[in-house]
Each structure stands twice: as C-alpha cells, then as structure tokens.
Amino acid sequence: MSKRSRIAAFFAALGVLVAVAVVLTIAARPGVVSAAAHPGSAASSTTYSVSADLDTCGAGWGSGAKAHVNGGDQTFTVTNRTVAGIEVYLQAADSKKVYLDLESIGAAARATARVTLGSGRYRFVCLPADADPVRGPTVMVGAAPPGAQLTPGIVPVTRNDLIPVAQTYGRWVASRIPVLRQQVALLGDDASEGHLAASRHDWLTAHQTYQTLGAAYDAFGDLGDAIDGMPAPGRTAADDPGLTGFHKIEALLWPGSGAVPDTTSGAIPAAIARLASDTAQLATDFADAEIDPNDIGLRAHEIVENAIQFDLTDATDAGSGSTLASIDAELTGAEQALAPLHDILSSRYEALAATMASLVSSHRLVETYRHADGTWTPLASLPRADRQRLDAALDEAAELLAPVAAICDIRRES
User: Fold this and answer.
1) Is-contact 371 263, C-beta < 8 A?
2) Lowest mean pLDDT among 8-17, 150-159, 321-330, 340-349
3) Which residues lie below 8 Å from residue 351, measured CB to CB, with a gap of 6+?
4) How deeply is 239 buried, as exposed, middle or buried, from its count of CB atoms within 10 A (0-12, 13-18, 19+)?
5) For residues 414 and 367, what is the distance between their CA atoms, to the nearest angstrom?
6) 76, 100 in Cβ contact below 8 A?
7) What is the DSSP string of 305-367?
8) Confidence of residue 218 (pLDDT cuts 50, 70, 90)
9) Max intra-chain CA distance, the chain
C-alpha cells in the first residue's frame, strides 16, 4: 500500500477529515470530488452548498436566519467562485482547531465532504493562493444527537512550529556525519592493509550509520545518490559502471561464487577513495544546508515505507546479506526523525505512544537476527513465518506513522 493510501485508510477508519491536502488533492478543474469525513448514511446529513471566494467565504451555511444550526452530520459542497485555486478550512472560532481542510480547489471546481460537529462556534476560512485569509461568519452549532461520532479537530501545524524541529533534527544529522567519515576512513585503512574481514565489518558499520540519516536525504541532493545509490535498471551493483558508493563497494567486497577479493588493488581502493571524497563533500555541503520544515513530518513514515518496499523485498542487497542491518538502521532513523516532533504531536495525536512503542518493538524484533560477532542473518534465509512477522511489524509501524504526516502538513495561518 502506498503512503497516500495508508494515510487515506487511517482517516477513513477513524472518521476524520483533517488534512485532506495529504489524503486527497482536488483536481484544478470543474467537477466534484467527494471525501467522506464520517462513515454512515448520507441521508442523515444536513446538506449545505457553500461558497468560497474573497467576499462571501462560507456563504450558504449559517447565514441570515441560519446563524444557528443543529449539531451532528453536516454535508458541505464547497464551490470555488474565484478565478484561481483556493484552500478552505472549517475551523472552530475559539480553539482554532480544524475539522475540515480542502486544499487546491480549482477555479469553478467543487468539493463535497461530510463532518460531524458538536456544540460550539465554527466558521469557514478561505485561503486564496495570493491573498490574505478571508474568514466567514461565525455559526453557532447545537449539540450533536446522542451517540454521534464527532469528527475530531486538530490545531493546525504551521511552518513556524516546524522550523525548530527541523533545526533540531539537522543538528543531529550534522553530529553524525563526522562519525560516518571516520568509519569510511577506517574502511580505507583496513582495505589498504588487506584485511578483508575487517573491511567488511567496517563497510557494514559505516553503511548503517548512513542509513540512520534517512530523513535528511533530500538535503543531500546528488551526493545522496553518489553515496548510497542503486544500480541502473537492468544492471547489478557489480556490473553498473556508473554506480559509486556503498553498494558498489558492497558488490566488490562480496563478489560471490567463492571469490576472495583483493582489497589492496583493483577497483576496491578506488571505490573507497571515491566514497571518502563524497562523504567529505557531504560534510561541507550539509553545513550550509537546511532541512525543509515541510518535509520533517513525512520522513519517519517514508523511511519505514521504503524499508518495506525495498529492503523487505531484498532489492537493496548487493551481496553482503545485510538487509536486516539496513532495516535496523532505518528504524533508528525513523525514531530520530519522530523524536523532535514529540511536543507538537503529544496534544494532537492520541496514538503517539502506540506509534513509538511500535517502532521500539519492530526494532527489537529486527535485532533478534543480529549475532554476537556483529553479523546478521541474511533476509533470504529466514523462514516464511519470520518474514511475515517482520512484515506485520513494519506494516503496523507504517500505519501508525501515516497520521503524523497528515497532522504535520503545514497550513497557512488563518
């Protein structure tokens, strides 16, 4: 299941229509896109046609004699009456919690969605692309019928909320790059002295360190591909002449077929020297780089998704049989990406503790395949039942992390 599918499934199951920008993007063309905010019978909903424009945001709900409406299910068809795209919130006027977020409604396009509201004061807020927010009239909503499953509201996360989070994470990454360089230097030293076993151990240690930095990959740019890229389609790490970095060295150190590589000559020293040069350049470049605050909430989920898609299928192994070591490092990376978001999420995500526990339990399961000498059981040799347990554990972690991406989707101040 893709990242977007997992996020959509979470909100559908919970009955929440928050951060529809992440769940569902509305096409910028005339038409209707529906997003069910709450399971149940549409016939029980009160239906409103609502305008979204610069003058009458929210008109059609609570205007005039309808300034007070009954609580419970509310179905809104929101029509963009401007000549450009617009974003629309349904917001609690007092707490500023958002109960409905429709992003990128194109000119003349409509979006239909349903929420279940309890008593309180609500308003629509229209956010044109190139203009200040327009706040609609405040509508008094009465109590919902007994037993109604209310749509939870979430206080929006702003760019200013996430800037210090991105900075904290960036400092952690910056502290790990010198460690990575030292580990690559040790790999070069042991290889030059002909110590194959030590070189393989050094490679694994350095590669795991790099794999923990997954939330910063976009900030690494092309250097990320040079350091840990995969072979071109139709090629292997051994025969791709354009491949550099960890996987090229992996294929050279573990050539298969019983071959014993000479680490002191041929392609191995050159590949290690290139990796050392690239990691040195990474240290220089990252000193001036910034983690995009808009990305930080996505990364923990993406890291686990990538582990499921690429590592659990053994697509990233180039001969070392260290796929489980990579997954172990990626789970560390996901934990490090999630950690600075704790204060933001603690008041917004009820399953935060369960999410953190799922990462920890997945980590412990993976580490049962690490041996006392630092080697790992090859993924390919695991019994089917073990593979299924790993897949289930990572799937659970990915499902729980999906809402983090939605909750941390940056929204404009309204």
Assistant:
1) no
2) 8-17
3) 400, 403
4) exposed
5) 46
6) yes
7) HHIIIIITTTTT-SSS--HHHHHHHHHHHHHHHHGGGHHHHHTT-TTHHHHHHHHHHHHHHHH
8) confident
9) 86
Which H or E run contains 114?
Answer: strand 109-117
Q: How many residues does this entry show for the chain? A: 414
Q: How far apart are CA 325 and CA 366, in angstroms?
A: 8
pLDDT digits (tens, 9 = 90+) for 332-374: 999 999 999 999 999 999 999 999 999 999 999 999 999 999 8
Residue with tokens 């992440």: 22
Model pLDDT, residue 66? 57
How buried is residue 63: exposed, middle or buried, by Cβ count under 10 Å (0-12/13-18/19+)? middle
Please give the structure tokens belonging to residue 27: 């096409």
What would the two tokens of residue 122 be?
Answer: 């609500």
> Which pLDDT score, from 0 to 100, does residue 24 have?
30
Class of domain 159-407: mainly alpha
Domain boundaries, the chain: 3-141, 159-407
**For residues 317 and 250, what is the distance between their CA atoms, to the nearest angstrom?**
9
User: At a CB cut-off of 8 Å and minimum separation 6, what does 320 contact?
Assistant: 200, 203, 204, 250, 253, 254
Sign of CA dihedral 70, 73, 79, 80: positive
pTM of the model: 0.81
Sequence-distant (6+) residues with CB within 8 A of 133 are 125, 126, 127, 412, 413, 414
Phi, psi of 135 (to 5 degrees): -100, 130
Name residues whose C-beta falls within 8 Å of residue 11's C-beta, 6 or more positions apart in sequence: 17, 18, 19, 23, 403, 406
Residue 76 DSSP symbol: E
- Distance between first and last Cα of the chain: 34
The DSSP secondary structure of 144-198, one letter per residue, reads: PPTT--PPPPBPPP-HHHHHHHHHHHHHHHHHHHHHHHHHHHHHHHHHHTT-HHH
Class of domain 3-141: mainly beta
